[in-house]
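Schema walk-through. Below, the input block comes first and the output block second. Nothing else is stored per chain. Lengths vary across the set, and this one has 84 residues.
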Amino acid sequence: MNNVVMYTTGYCPYCSRAEMLLKQRGVAEIEKIRIDVDTDQRAIMMQRTGRRTVPQIYIGDTYVGGFDDLAALDREGKLLPMLG
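--- output ---
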């Protein structure tokens, strides 16, 4: 299974929903990068993704986007193949 990395904050309902969806699809471990705790990581996230909001999700080396993007991949049947 591909490694999943999620930029997140302490309280983020969309982050919680993304985590729940990923776990439902068999992801046992998500590497969470807390941008509210480490402000340098916020700058890195914005540089990598071009976005300011969380969650921002990577599956392996592929940038997925936020929760809406993740949910769309799932609806289209593309999430499970990405997870490997």
